[in-house]
Design brief:
By secondary structure, the protein is α+β, with helices and mostly antiparallel strands. It has helices at 2-26, 47-50, 150-153, 401-433; strands spanning 32-42, 53-63, 73-77, 95-102, 111-113, 116-118, 123-130, 136-144, 171-182, 186-189, 195-197, 200-203, 210-217, 220-228, 233-237, 241-243, 255-257, 266-274, 277-287, 292-295, 299-303, 307-317, 323-330, 338-339, 343-345, 349-350, 356-365, 373-380, 388-397.
Length: 438
């Protein structure tokens, strides 16, 4: 009984201890490491002629208690409500990471942090992207000082540090304050589909923001959507574009484009302006429509000497570039196919929906060596994982023997008649030339 009462008494303490441990685990910063390149543009006397020089140096983005013994610039992430590593849970070989300075010169808007406002923050951006274009995330990192450093005591008295030199082995303490990300940096779509272009953002405090979507392709530029966060109102919305207004203030700035057309491919820019920071993601949309390939015949029976034209139609494909080849295969594939060279193409024909058609022609005169030959039309296009192939099987029969006999007989008869006529003429000439007796 005493043991039971003790267990009942200790149970709340166990539950409290477990809750404390769980809370501590939630705030524990995981040990994470990401290799990056620190990119800077250096000005020189030749800048006006050749432009600034881009310098890249090795850097690491660290969180937790990790230490690096390599020669590199270390950006050590401090505790923040935003976690840049939530977007990079992949193998390092699949990732690209670039860190750059971010200037707020001329934008005198304070950034709120820890109950204070300052306009002398030093900012960096770290852009992490999947090399296969499955996501891109750009985080704005604010440089902070260690609480016990002398530099921290004099921080308020310092002037602008945006251009201060950074050594090859320096360690900078940074805190993520703002993130703009997309899971659709490159989208390949078919025609007539509905497409959601993803753009999300996270801010470490509640503040005003503006959202702007723009489109550009082959000299065409237009605004698609703009939103004023301070007044919570849409200022512009292009026809055919939809937004998720019920989610826009919770970090979802995505748009939907209905019924994709050829004219919708191009570059889309999502800008989320949180003064003094501009978060921008550029998204590429490519329209890919696979060709419909057909040949005029599946099989063909010919007589020796017949002339035949084969046609291969590739229709309703986009973009324009397509490769069509004719190949000749003998028998059961024991020999490599031969590419045909005497091929003619029609001009590209454009359909109303912007797709294209093209026809390829191949002409030949049947011979006995074409018997049991397969002619193949092979079409390659960027929308295809593997080429489309269409086959025409050819059978060739020799000319009938009786016909050959008749043709031979006629030929011999003609020759004989010609010889007889020739002999008659020679005899006449000979007789005329004989001398007459007197």
């Amino acid at each position: 009984v005493a043991a039971m009462h003790l267990k009942i008494f200790l149970r709340p303490l166990w539950m409290l201890a477990a809750a404390i441990v769980q809370a501590q685990n939630r705030h524990t910063v995981q040990n994470r490491k990401l290799e990056c390149m620190f990119v800077e543009e250096k000005q020189s006397e030749e800048t006006q002629i050749f432009g600034p020089t881009t310098i890249k140096r090795k850097a690491f983005l660290l969180s937790g208690d990790l230490n690096i013994n390599e020669k590199a610039i270390i950006f050590k992430l401090q505790a923040s409500s935003l976690d840049v590593f939530q977007y990079v849970d992949e193998k390092p070989d699949n990732l690209g990471c670039e860190i750059s300075r971010y200037s707020t010169h001329g934008i005198h808007v304070p950034w709120t942090h820890q109950g204070k406002e300052t306009i002398t923050d030093v900012w960096f951006t770290v852009t992490v992207r999947n090399l296969k274009s499955s996501f891109t995330a750009t985080s704005f990192m604010r440089k902070i000082e260690a609480p016990d450093s002398q530099q921290a005591e004099n921080n308020e008295a310092k002037a602008d540090e945006e251009d201060s030199a950074i050594g090859d082995t320096d360690t900078l303490l940074v805190q993520v304050s703002y993130v703009v990300h997309t899971s659709t940096p490159l989208t390949k779509t078919k025609l007539k589909q509905d497409l959601v272009l993803d753009c999300g953002y996270k801010i470490d405090h509640s503040t005003d923001f503006n959202i702007d979507w723009r489109y550009q392709h082959k000299g065409i530029k237009k605004k698609l959507f703009s939103y004023n966060g301070r007044h919570e109102q849409v200022e512009h919305l292009e026809k055919g574009v939809e937004v998720f207004m019920d989610r826009i203030r919770t970090g979802n700035a995505s748009i939907r484009i209905r019924n994709i057309d050829v004219q919708d491919e191009g570059s889309y820019t999502c800008s989320v302006y949180v003064p003094p920071l501009f978060g921008i993601q550029t998204l590429e949309v490519e329209v890919l429509e696979s060709p419909i390939v057909s040949v005029d015949l599946d099989s063909l029976s010919l007589k020796e000497g017949d002339e035949q034209k084969l046609a291969c139609e590739s229709g309703r494909f986009y973009p324009l570039d397509v490769t069509v080849k004719w190949l000749r295969q003998q028998g059961e594939g024991h020999m490599l196919p031969v590419y045909m060279t005497n091929v003619v193409f029609s001009p590209h024909r454009r359909n109303k929906d912007g797709t294209y058609n093209i026809t390829s022609f191949f002409r030949f005169i049947a011979s006995l060596r074409d018997n049991d030959v397969t002619y193949m039309c092979r079409v390659e296009h960027i929308s295809l994982v593997k080429p489309i192939k269409r086959y025409i099987h050819v059978k060739v029969e020799a000319q009938p023997q009786i016909l050959l006999f008749i043709l031979g007989s006629i030929t011999i008869l003609v020759v004989c008649i010609f010889l007889v006529i020739l002999l008659i003429q020679i005899k006449k000439v000979t007789e005329r030339n004989k001398k007459k007796p007197y």
